[in-house]
Amino acid sequence: MNVLFVHVKGNVLPDHIRDAPEIGHLTVITEPGHLQRYGPDVDVRLVDDVENVELLRLAVLDLLRERHIDRIFAPFERGQTQTGYVRTYFGIPGIGPEVAHGFSHKYAMKQRLQRAGLPVTDFRLAYGLDQVPGAAADLGWPVVVKPVVGGGSMDISVVRSAEQLAEFAASPDAASIRALRCPLIVEKFVDVVAEYHCDGVVRGGEVVFAAASRYLTPVLDHGALFGSVTLPADDPVGVRIEELHARAVAALGLVDGVTHMEFLATSDGLLAGEIACRAAGGGIPHALSLHAGVDVWRASLQLALGLDPKVDDAPVAGVTAHCYLPLRPGRVVALTGADELRALPSVVDVTPLLRVGDVVPERINSAAASALVFLQAPTTEQAEAAVARVYEAFHIDIEAR
Fold it and tell me: Is residue 201 part of a domain?
């Protein structure tokens, strides 16, 4: 099978996806400075900007004049709408632009979820920071401001007043938001009691696998403690989350793909957050594989190639947790080793992400960590106690640069 990857430069695919046996001949369209490394047998073509639909279309046209392309795999939000357009333009099977847009453009997504009757926090569209006060006047302060296309909790700000917004807009901290090439979505801020995610596999328009998990602490301003734990199969919140997830999939018209959806629990009830048509980031895919034997990355690729991932949605005993060990910008001087972490109770796997001498950049996303630790236990309470022991045992020294 001749496969094209449309790959934004800032993301890296797992090795087993890059080298998947289902792929016969692989071509990659990505951007200069990309982080992914491919072997000499991979045809890598560069465009200045994957999100520039005309540049992408012309690059695919050049490719099609050389060889037939059976399928296109676009595993990240950025570029999904553009890839959907290219599929439709050239008659290549897969997700089209309308469905892709609903899963990658937060404003369009919230509109469709709201029309389908899902509970969502109130929201408005702003084309720049100068339009946020008008949106906030409709919604009421405080508000959450974020780009309509993006991920990893980047460029998200909680603004509590017009005065704070003016101060923020005039500061260097707003430079990345002012540089965005997309609008902003402004959402009414809600007091979050707990935050959840649901990860699913959709085949033929039906959810064939779904797993609900609770974040150890809400994502926004989560501090050192971060990660999630799967909910027991009979948990009533999990049942409700999986129901809302299925309704969201139907509202956005997904036929084949994997999903990652966020939920907010407030004192007034559960709110549907954002849903993406991609595998989750960070340690969630490996946690799901350990918990239920479902590889959402592999399922994502197989579905993009028109194949059946054949996942099993049978109930699973116990719970699986994973946590992100802390870091901060600077040079790593010392840190607790992976073997010492593996020896802790309930720990089943450790993925080191930093070594002594590595430099952590100033700008990092919500999934950044010095290591990922995976744990299994009979109950949620036991899993959380084991996570606490991991944080107590872990130490890292970072010197400022």
Answer: yes
Q: Do 369 and 340 share a structural domain? A: yes
The verdict on 31 and 144 lying in the same domain is no
Q: Which residue has the higher pLDDT, 368 or 228?
A: 228
Amino acid residing at 73:
F
pLDDT > 90: what percent of the chain? 82
Per-residue pLDDT reduced to its tens digit, 104-141:
999 999 999 999 999 999 999 999 999 999 999 999 99
Strands ordered across the beta sheet of 2-6: 43-46, 25-30, 2-6, 71-73
- Segment 326-366, tens digit of pLDDT: 888 899 999 999 999 999 999 999 999 999 989 988 877 66
Task: Tell whether 376 is covered by a domain.
Answer: yes
pTM equals: 0.93
Region for 18 from its dihedrals, namely left if φ exceeds 0, alpha if ψ lies in -120 to 50, beta otherwise: alpha
Residue 109 in domain: no
Is it the case that residue 14 has pLDDT exceeding 80?
Answer: yes
* Structural contact between residues 278 and 272, judged by C-beta atoms closer than 8 angstroms: no
Side chain identity, residue 182: C
Q: Are 377 and 386 in contact (CB under 8 A)?
A: yes
Distances, alpha carbon 192 to alpha carbons 61, 143, 145, 270, 351, in Å: 47, 13, 16, 10, 30
Q: Which domain holds residue 313?
A: 194-399
- Compute the distance between CA of residue 180 and CA of residue 163 in angstroms, rounded to an integer: 22
Same domain, 76 and 129: no
Q: Are residues 174 and 89 in the same domain?
A: no
The answer as to whether 112 is a domain residue is: no
Question: Are 221 and 275 members of one domain?
Answer: yes
| Cβ atoms of 327 and 368 closer than 8 Å | yes
